[in-house]
Amino acid sequence: MKNSEDITEWKQVPEELWNDWRWQLKNRITTTEELQKFIPLTPDEKSEIDQCLKKFRMAITPYYASLIDIHNPNCPIRLQCIPRIQELYIDPEELADPLGEERDSPVENIVHRYPDRVLFLLTKKCSTYCRHCTRRRLVGEEDYSISHSSLERALAYIRSNPKIRDVLISGGDPLILPDEYLENIISRLRQIKHVEIIRIGTRVPVVLPMRITERLLNMLKKYHPIWINTHFNHPAELTAASIKACTMIADAGIPLGNQSVLLRGVNDNAEILKQLFTGLLKARVRPYYLYQCDVAQGIGHFRTPVEDGIAIMKKIRGYISGLAVPTYVIDAPMGGGKIPIYPEYIVSMDENKVILRNYQDKIYEYPNVKKSLKKAE
Ligand SMILES: *Cc1c(COP(=O)(O)O)cnc(C)c1O
Ligand code: SF4
Predict the structure, then answer these.
(1) Measured from the CB, is residue 199 less than 6 Å from ligand 1?
(2) Which ligand neighbours the alpha carbon of 122 most closely?
(3) Which tens digits make up the pLDDT trace of 138-154?
C-alpha cells in the first residue's frame, strides 16, 4: 500500500514495517532535513518552513507523506501537512484559543459547554499535525498524555455530573495512545451509569490507518455504544488503506462520522466535496459536520468567506444523497459553540403560507397551520 513508489527511501521498507503503526510513529517527518529526502524543496521553501517550525511544530507520518504529489506545489495533502510562511502572519482578530475552550473548562482537560456532553482531551499529541488545526495552541506540546492526577480529576468531574450522557474523547489524537491506556479510561467511563455514549474523535483513519487494528477494535467493542468521528478533508485521502480502516471500524459495530474543515485551496469546491462526501458514504462514514475554518492563529490563508461556504452547500444539498450532506457550521469564537449555517430556503413565512425555495431555486408554497386556530382547539 505504498503509494509513492518513486521514493527510494521508502521502497526499502518491508511491507510489515510500513503497516506497523508504531514504525509509522517512530519515523514521522519532523524536520526539513528529513522532509527534503522525500520532497524536493527550494532553499527558500526550506528556510520558510524552518521559520514556521520555530512557532508551530511539524510531524507527518510516512504513510500520509506518501500521498503527497511531489510534482504539485498545491497538492491538497501537502497543503494540509507542510507549513507555509503564511502561518507566521497572525491577524489581530485571530485568537490563541479561538473556541474559548479554556473558559468552559471546569477541570483540566475537560470542556463542558453543552448541557449533556463534554469534551475530554486525553493528549496533546497527534501522529500528523494538520496545518489548519484549531487547537494548535495545545497540540504538539511535549506531553504524551495527561498527568495521573489530572486524569482522576477529569473522571471524578464526569462521575459527579449526572447530566453528562455523552463523553467525547479527543485531543490531540487519542488513538495514538496505547490500547491498554485507552482501555483503562474507556472502561472507567463505561462504569459511570449516566454516561450513555462514548465518542472518539480521531484523525488516525486518515493519517495513520494502520493504527486501526483488530486488537484495538476488539477492545473498543467491549464498551459499546462507541462512536468514532474522523476528519477526512479531500477525496485523495480515501485510499485503499484508509477505506480498509473505516471498513474495519464499521464492521466492529462502531458508527463512523466525519468532520471536515472547509479549507481554501484544498477543498473549497462543490465538486471536490461531493466526491469526498459520496466517497465517505461508500466507506460507511456519514459526513457529519463541515466546519467553517475558525480564527486560530496563523491559519488565515486557509479561511474562505462564509458566503463561499453557503454557495458550496447550495450546490451540494439536493444533488447527492441526503445522507452524504453534512451540516455546515461555524464554531463561534468565545465559546458560542457550533452554529449551523444554511443557504436561505425560506423565502417568506406568515400564518397563511410559507414560501420555499428548493435546491433548483424553484419556488413552492406550503399552506401554514394557523397558530390562532391551533390555540382554539
Ligand atoms: C463539538 C463539541 C461538542 C459536541 O458537539 P455535537 O454537536 O454534539 O457533536 C461538545 N462539546 C464541545 C466543547 C464541542 O466543541
Ligand atoms: S488531528 Fe486534530 S488535533 Fe491533531 S493536528 Fe489535526 S486537527 Fe489538530
Answers:
(1) no
(2) 2
(3) 776 666 778 999 999 99
